[in-house]
Amino acid sequence: MVTGVAAVLTALSGRDYLSSADCSAGETQGLIDLAHQLKSGDRRIDLGNRVLGLIFSKASTRTRVSFQVAMARLGGQTVDLHPSVTQLGRGEPLQDTARVLSRYCDVLAVRTFAQQEIVDYAYWATVPVLNALTDLEHPCQALADFLTMQESHGDLAGQTLAYIGDGNNVAHSLMLCGAVLGVNVRIACPEGFEPLPGVLEQARSLAQQGAQIEVMADSAQAVRGAQAVYTDVWASMGQEQEQAEREQAFAGFCVDQALMDQAAKGAIVLHCLPAHRGEEISAEVMESAASRIFDQAENRLHVQQALLASVMGGL
Ligand code: CP
Ligand code: NVA
């Protein structure tokens, strides 16, 4: 079993990170602990002049910039590719692009729609591939979220995170990563917007230390006793045309002060961002003392630096 930071740096060397289920409990906790050490300055890692290729088919502020800065802090550089400015946009096959980019880059981070596409990149690439968000998962985000929860409430095992909103990519990774870390995860969502049954089943089968992974329709029930309350946009990238319909479906699923009052004393508020104030989160909660949203955004940098260092075998 992998435990501790040094073991993680070795165990993840050369590996992909496509799903929150790709790392064991020890590896996931080790990544979070390494991120904490990098953040506090207790550990410095210089990988020399390595290169990260970013292949993003969707917009991004946090993921793009935090990957770039993480790579710079490791002594490396980033090339920011976009299908519209590469031959990918003109139909060059992924299996050729992935093999060619592997000859130039030491690691690739891909943001796209279908999970299968990132699985295909990982198959064809000869360097590690990292999931920078797909419609199915957002595993780098979940690492930052649980680092933020650990900073506020200490040991993660046995804590409870309530997620209010759409049961899609962010919720899926929270369920899987939470299960692996022994965190109870409750998803509250309107009917028709539940997490995929296969992901729920997978999370339950991965759950450590008796962690409960639950899906429900009642936000108040979900937040009761929770140490963290989390939300995300109602219409994700690629679903913009469903905005009006989703506003109706998600009415009543806003994280507002009345809901926060029902969570555990000292509960923190998390949001992956970008946020829509007045929809999934009230402006009051967003700016409240309980909000750790901007620490969470900062933690993207530290966990991705830990992940990059680990997959590139940086000791
Ligand atoms: N949370 C997140 O992934 O933000 P970006 O879409 O800005 O990268
Ligand atoms: N669920 C959102 C997350 C953005 C970081 C989306 O996919 O757009």
| Biggest β-sheet strands, sense, barrel | 5 strands, parallel
- Name of the top-level CATH class of the largest domain: Alpha Beta
Output the helix-strand order: HHEHEHEHEHEHEHEHEHHEHH
The total count of helices amounts to 13
Q: Beta-sheet strand percentage?
A: 5-15%
* CATH level-3 fold name of the largest domain: Rossmann fold
Number of strands: 9
Helix content: 40-55%
Average pLDDT score = 96
Structural class: alpha/beta
CATH architecture of the largest domain: 3-Layer(aba) Sandwich
The CATH superfamily label of the largest domain reads Aspartate/ornithine carbamoyltransferase
Whole-number count of domains: 2
- Radius of gyration (CA) equals 19 Å
Report low-confidence residues grouped into runs of 5 or more.
none
Shape assignment: globular
The distinct bound ligands, ions and cofactors come out as: phosphoric acid mono(formamide)ester, norvaline
Sheet with most strands: strand arrangement: 7-6-5-8-9
Distance between the termini: 19 Å
Describe this structure in words.
The longest helix has 19 residues, at 293-311. The mean pLDDT is 96. This protein has helices at 5-11, 25-40, 62-73, 94-104, 115-124, 139-153, 169-181, 197-206, 219-223, 243-249, 257-260, 283-286, 293-311, and strands at residues 51-56, 77-81, 107-111, 129-131, 160-164, 184-188, 213-216, 228-231, 268-271. The chain has 13 helices and nine strands. Strand 3 (107-111), helix 5 and strand 4 form a beta-alpha-beta unit. The strands form two sheets. Strands 7-6-5-8-9 form a five-stranded parallel beta sheet. 50% of the residues are buried. Helix content is 42%, strand content 13%. The chain is α/β, with parallel strands linked by helices. It folds into two domains: 7-137 and 300-308, Aspartate/ornithine carbamoyltransferase (Rossmann fold, 3-Layer(aba) Sandwich); 141-296, Aspartate/ornithine carbamoyltransferase (Rossmann fold). It binds phosphoric acid mono(formamide)ester and norvaline.
